[in-house]
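The instructor's notes for this session suggest beginning with a concrete chain rather than abstract definitions. Hand out the sequence below and ask the class to guess, before any prediction is shown, which regions might be ordered.
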Amino acid sequence: MISRASKPLSPSLLLWSGTLLLYVHAASFPLNVQSQSILAWSLLALLAIIQANYTRIEQHLGASLRLFRLIVIFLAVFITLRYLAWRLTSTIGYHDPLSLLGALLLLAAELYGIAVYFLGAFVNAFPIKRTPPPLPEDPNLWPTVDILVPTYNEDPEMLETTLLAATQIHYPQHRFKVYLCDDGGTLQRRNRPDPAQAREALERHETLQALCAEVGAHYLTREKNLHAKAGNINSALEHCHGELVVILDADHVPTVDFLQNTVGFFLHDPKLFLVQTPHYFINPDPLERNLRTFEHMPSENEMFYTVIQHGLDFWNASFFCGSAAVLRRELIDKVGGVAGETITEDAETAMGLHGLGYNSVYYGKPMVAGLQPETFSGFTVQRMRWAQGMVQIFLLKNPWMQPNMSISQRLAYTSSVFFWFFPFARVVFLIVPGFFLLFGLRIYDANLQEFLAYALPHILAAILMSNALYGKTRWPFVSELYETVQSVYSLPAIIEVLRNPRSPSFAVTPKGERLDEDFVSSLAKPFYILLLLNILFMTAGALRLIFQPELTSITVITMAWAGINVIFILAAIGIMLEKAQKRAAYRINTQRTKAYPMSLEYAGQKCSCTLVNISHSGLAVHIPHNRIVPELGDVMSFDIYIPALDRLGHFHATVEGIHKQKRTAIQLGLSFKAENQTEKRTIVGLVYGWSELSAYNQQARQKRISPLAGLGYLYRTALFHAWEHVAFLSGVFSRDLLARLSHTIQALRARLVNMRQNTASPPSLSPEKTHEKPH
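After discussion, reveal the predicted structure:
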């Protein structure tokens, strides 16, 4: 009997291995600088031509897109391999101990970046798009489903919206149940020593029990808050028995077609443990809101959910993302429930099941509407948790230690996990220019000609490949900006995990915050320091140009590096000015589709109007001809088609705002006036039920721009919002100074008045002192 380990290699594997060896050998073949320049810039020109026409290729050569994708990867990786061979053999020399230390630190950061770059190219070489398989005609053959909504401290109003949506999913009513899993009303929290905290937990417990009874969901809680979200889910699993389990975060509102588009995959593959779908967000994250990019630039999460997960899916390595996912209950039970050894229980669970030989599927249609953190501090809490959890997985559940994973799955998981070490490299890139400009350390032995032949083509090739693979969902240099703002706080968090892999605790991401006014984030200080440091580096570089003209070329290159750092840091400082967010609920843009015809009735008059945006609390409508003249506070009714429910809905709303537009047109701001639970349910179906609305809004933002346009956009954005930040601080300082001056002047006036009064009327003697005898 031949063991698995002793099986002969397949011819295809041998062919690929031989081709790879030839490719690497060609990339490492030595050339003189002139020949290298000709080769690198010729390949770069070809790469640039393909990248510039990539959108046309996507539109007209769909069947050949994979070939062009491989050509782009082949060219870009080849240029980088030649840079890497030169970098390792020609740029590290010994000058002094500090220079060597700085050189090795920079080399380590570059090697990390190149490794992530190569892994990303591998993962995204063959993305696949799936179509949901049809369900049986007999609904009694459809799998039974339990929908779990874990909650800890979320507002009951937010939970009501999610539960109303979950309970009206289009699926046979006897085949699914909805459970609210409340970790904020556990027995442990209701019996806290602090009476106020205990009373708050009890009130939450009773409120959510009543809410579940009202909307048709089941309320669950437990005795103790053990193992955070994973423990909450595992406790709930003891009370439900469906064949499939859906996990929805408290703020993730599902569309009506969520189950019909996902459960069919399980009927066609008995080894399937997961169907993951995208997390689609209706509000901007703090970076998008503070830089005002949300309506016209792809969101930060879209690159992962629109490109990378499809790439992972090809390698059977798409992983559980904590929500908007369907799991096979039998296989979850087989591994003892949702894993809880790390604080990213979702990816940990998926890795364990992939390691046992089970399969996953990614279906890329957005079918939940979620909320992102509103403040930079909330955003930082979320990303620090993700970074710590992924580093924990790398240390405690390393993909190369899983028993039944394929090589491709191990590489894919390594890519997903290894990415989160980016704070090390990013911080190095922010401070390394000072090693030479300020201290004169020799950390990169190269002249200008070599830089232009090897380093610059490598940098440009990476930018062009990234724009070809991800450009519709991630504009050039946006990744670097996100990494810059996260690195300062994620780096200490990662170091903590490296020192003690089991130290992190689960931190709940704050959602649904309201910001009543603009303010500067309390986390801004490190970016002020980084800005001053890089300005100091550039100043030192200018002096070096004067006093060491023989080092002009390397000094100019390093100053340009520091200058780019300054642009990223200025953009980060712009992000630190938190913009006000006063709406109770975010509005969803509806102008990109004509699927919501509506008519408005007021004072006996009816008129057609256009829905502009909508949320579960209100809407805005455009009336082209001012045939009605309402007043604030008036109540009006309207009929609107509800695509998700395929019928007309009749609603009442109160006028909250009247805005005159061109000529006779007006726009009304209305708030829903829901009289009962049935009307609330219909409003939720109208706002969140139709999955195509999310797709329209997402696709409208997904457009590719050139790297040069991306650099210009970053430059303009950084300068504008950094200046806005400075102007805000100047205003705050001026108002504070005026207030202090006013207070001081008032105090001086009061003192002068008292002095005048004391001078005008000398103190009278008391009767006792009048008869006092002198000593």
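Then share the key points. The two ends are 126 Å apart (CA to CA). The chain has 26 helices and 19 strands.
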